[in-house]
Amino acid sequence: MNSKKTGVLAILGASLMWSLEPVCAKLAYKYPDADFVQTSAVRAMVVTLVALVYVFLTGKRNLKVTRGQLSKLFYIAIVGTICADLLYFFALTKIPVINAVLVGHMQPIFIVLIGFFILREDKLTKFDYLGIFIMITAGLLVTSGTAENLSMMKLCTAGDVYVLLATVAWATTAIVMRKYLKELNAGVLTFYRYLIASAVFAVYLTARRSLVISNVYQILVGVIVGVGTILYYESMKRIKAAQVSAMELSTPFFAVLFGFLVLRETVTVMQVSGIVLLLVGVCLMSKKEEAYF
C-alpha cells in the first residue's frame, strides 16, 4: 500500500475514534464517582501506555527526543491535553455530542487565522474568507439547533463556548506539531504528550485522593484516543494538511450516528444543514490551507 492510501485510511480511522470518544466519555460520566477531571486523567494514562506499546510494536524502541523537541512537546501537552482536553471533557457534561464534535472541527478557521495574523506566513484569499464565513454559519446552525432559537439569538451555550476555546488551543498545537515535530515518530510524539499530562494529573488527583479508575469506559476512552491520536499523526506524515482536514469531516457524521444509537441524542434539520455547510467551508479553505505547512 502506498503512502497516500495509508494516510487516507489512517485519518478515516482517526475520525472514527474521535466520534467514539465523546460517546464513551458521556457513558463514563453516568457513574456517580466519575467526573471530567478523573476521566481525563485515566484517559491520559491509558493513552501513554497505548503509545508505548505502539512504539515497541513498530520496532522503534527509542524514546529519545532533542531538547528543542521536548519544549514543543511540553507545549502540546499543557495546552492541548491539560487545558484544551479538560475544557472539552467539561463541555461534554453540558452539551450534546454533535455540538461538541462539530465546534471542535472548526480548527481550520483558527489555523488559517493564526497563520495570517500571528505567523505572517501567507495572505488570506477569497476562498479563505468564504470558507470562514460558511463554517461560522455552520457552527451557529448546530449550536442554536432550531429556527426559534436562532431568531431569538440563542446561538450557543456556555458548553459550546468551552469547546470553541478548546478548538483554538488545539489549532495552536496542530501548527506546532506540523511545523516542528512532523519527523518525530507518531508513537513517540503521542507518548510524551500524554506522559507529561499524566504526570500533572497524577499529582493533582493524588492530592485529592481520587487517583482511581471508576469504570471501564474511562479505560476505553483512553484506548480510543490513543489509537486515534497515533492514526492522526501518521496521516499528517503522509498526506497534505488540507486533505486531513477535509477527511476528518467524516467525524460529525459518525458522531450523529453513535450519539443516536448509544445515547439516544437526536439532531434537528438545522443541525444537519450545519454539518453539510461545515463540509463546504473546509473544502473551500482547503484550497489554501496546505500552503501553511
What keyword list fits this structure?
mainly alpha; single chain; 293 residues; 13 helices
Descriptive report:
The chain is globular and about 55 Å long. The chain is an all-alpha fold and 293 residues long. It contains 13 helices and no strands. The chain has one domain.
What spatial form do the alpha-carbon principal axes imply? globular
Class of secondary structure makeup: mainly alpha
Largest beta-sheet characterization: none
Query: Could you tell me how far the N terminus lies from the C terminus, measured between alpha carbons in angstroms?
Result: 25 Å
Q: Helicity level, as a percent range? A: over 70%
How many domains in all?
1
The total count of helices amounts to 13
The quaternary structure here is: single chain
What's the rounded overall pLDDT mean?
Answer: 85
Strand content: under 5%
- Order of helix and strand elements from N to C terminus: HHHHHHHHHHHHH
What's the SSE blueprint?
Blueprint: H1 3-29, H2 36-57, H3 67-91, H4 97-104, H5 107-117, H6 126-144, H7 147-151, H8 158-180, H9 186-208, H10 216-238, H11 241-247, H12 250-263, H13 269-289
Helix pairs in contact: 1-10, 1-12, 2-3, 2-9, 2-10, 3-8, 3-9, 4-8, 4-12, 5-8, 5-13, 6-13, 9-10, 11-13
